[in-house]
Design goal:
Elements (H helix, E strand, L loop, with lengths): L17 E4 L6 E2 L17 E2 L22 E4 L7 E4 L8 E2 L1 E2 L2 E2 L5 E5 L5 E7 L13 E3 L4 E3 L18 E5 L3 E5 L20 E4 L6 E7 L12 E5 L5 E8 L1
Antiparallel strand pairs: 1-2, 1-17, 3-9, 4-5, 6-10, 7-8, 9-10, 10-12, 11-12, 13-14, 15-16, 16-18, 17-18
């Protein structure tokens, strides 16, 4: 499954996805939508909500050091670092900038999720910097600075994202908060977040459709007459929690 540039850039790895019925029965192979002109279909790179600023201070983003106690090390240009006044908005919450300075707490940056919605994301070097169910998969620019995905619940109406955003699942059930789409169940789609919250974009190559997510253990979430199918990655592993209704 490829990662796309909903906001700016690209991170990528490929996974073949299949849907398999949770009970006995033949498997129907599915693939994610093909890579499109903006780079792909899944985890998005993030734009900063700040203007360009080429000042250099040599402070460190992870772990935070090199600034005064009342300051934070951050970036305005996704390439260099500088010390700004510390903010009060935590990771995963909506944020804003004023005079080029965001209001995120130290260790986070205010990223542009679209429609002028900002969300604080944590700087990271590896997955270990991100915490449970979060991954260091989103680049800021091309200079190697990365931020974490946002752990959230992609089932039903979704939960764990700030207002204006919704939770989507991708790759090996990694989740992230995205600007929600409006396509309904069974509608043709090109990206996961084309669909309404609580759904994902899957199907035979070139004919992907929005499919409702379900609990792969209980089958909860599917309509009468539907079955909750397992999602199988290219390596044969299944998503641990979510399935898709067909």
């Amino acid at each position: 499954m490829r990662h796309c540039t909903t906001f700016a850039l690209l991170i990528g790895f490929f996974v073949s996805v299949g849907l398999h019925e949770g009970c006995a029965g033949s498997a129907t192979e599915y693939t994610p939508p093909p890579t499109n002109s903006d780079g792909g279909t899944d985890a998005a790179a993030a734009d900063l909500m700040t203007p360009m600023d080429l000042r250099r201070t040599g402070c460190n983003l992870v772990p935070q050091n090199g600034c005064m106690p009342t300051e934070k090390c951050t970036t305005h240009d996704a390439a260099t670092t500088l010390c700004d006044p510390n903010g009060i908005i935590n990771r995963g919450e909506r944020c804003m900038t004023q005079d080029g300075i965001d209001n995120c707490f130290a260790g986070n940056a205010c990223t542009n999720q679209g429609n002028t919605i900002g969300m604080c994301r944590s700087f990271c070097r590896t997955d270990g910097d991100c915490g449970t169910r979060s991954y260091c998969e989103i680049p800021l620019g091309t200079a190697g600075i990365r931020v974490c995905t946002q752990p959230c619940n992609a089932l039903g109406n979704t939960a764990g994202c700030p207002s204006g955003l919704a939770c989507y699942a991708y790759f090996t059930e990694h989740t992230d908060c995205r600007l929600p789409g409006n396509k309904t169940e069974a509608a043709l789609c090109a990206r996961l977040e084309d669909c309404l919250p609580g759904m994902a974009c899957l199907g035979p190559g070139g004919a992907e459709r929005c499919r409702k997510l379900c609990d792969r253990t209980t089958g909860a979430g599917c309509s009468v007459g539907q079955t909750c199918y397992l999602v199988t990655n290219g390596d044969g592993s299944n998503w641990p929690t979510y399935g898709f209704c067909l």
